[in-house]
Amino acid sequence: MNTPPLQRSSGPGVARAPAPARRPGAPPPLLRFGVEEEFLLTSPRSRITVPAAEAVVADAARTLGPRAQYEFLTTQVEGCTRPVGTAAELRAELADTRGVLLAAADRAHCRLVATGTAVLPSHHPLTVTPKPRYLLLADRVDGVADQIGAELCGCHVHLGDLTHRQALSLSARMRGWLPLFQAFCANSPFCEGTDHGTASNRPERYARWPTFGPAPVLDETGYRAALDRMLADGVILDRRMLYWFARPSEHLPTLEVRIADSCADLDTVLLLAVLLRALAHTLLDPRTRARPRPVPDGALRLAHRRAASAALDARLPDPLTGHPQPVRQLLPALVEFTAPALLRTHELGLVRHLSARLLATGCGADHQRAALARHGRLSAVVDDLAHRTATTAPLR
């Protein structure tokens, strides 16, 4: 990701104004948020991924500017929203960004598909985008760039504006909830022609990259020391090469949450972003009495594996009690836990509606399996994903 959706200043050389003093016990300032979505490009005839990123990004950039971006492989593109303050604004941004990329893909004779991994077997070797940093990365992770399932697409939410200290603190408090977000955004049950029996294949493939996984609990000093150590040991090339599930941006005033597969259904992306922001507002609010329990790293990794495997049918630890609960109970419970924050932003009704519909109709992995059951072939799954990705009108 080269150009993020949130910026530190309003223009070159313009410093951000200092935040006004907040009276003790007052709710935290409302955070802006933005989304980065990664997509695959597929052939309309073969449904296999095609290396058309150069044409698609160049075309889309005429409208989106730097918010249309290249990704690691030439079969992938990324779209970034601008930072916004409301759910309605974010949905419009997501729809507009997708619309521009969809039109550019159509002119390049390919289709835009939101899924965590390629459904059908791709043509190997996969081509790395010929940008200096991507080529260095490919050399550093030799073999991973062309592994089966290397075309990994995620949906990343930026929460800001936050200081580095606030972002690290929020990451530590939020990490027990992230398996739940991973579960309802699961959208990669098939990986290059193979069904591995899980709802999300992307985490297993991504685990071969350095630093992938839950973010450690660190203060500012510990964070800088950890990055310096990884740089010195050659684990990472630079400070952007962190693939933790949540990370403070090195060049933005945000916490970037990187837990979700790319979601074909735009309203799942909206639910992800709005609920993450509501959780952030709740955890940052000094009036919130219930606080998450510390989660041991081993238990947290197990929860993420269960979320990837079973999605909506998983049982995950309740972050407030530590007791295992079904995802179908945890999601409504999270909505109610964040209800005061959602009321403050006039989003409670929207989130209740979107979460109830998702639980009733299934997550992305459920839709992919249903498409295969209806048609009996994986090419139909790609068609269904392309249709869902292109459906940007509000659902009822």
From TrEMBL:
EC number annotated for this UniProt entry: 6.3.2.2
Keywords for this protein: ATP-binding, Ligase, Nucleotide-binding
Molecular function terms, GO-annotated: ligase activity
Superkingdom, natural source: Bacteria
Enzyme class: ligase
Ranges of compositional bias, category Low complexity: 11-24
NCBIfam families per record: gshA_cyan_rel
Protein name: Putative glutamate--cysteine ligase 2
Source organism of this protein record: Kitasatospora phosalacinea
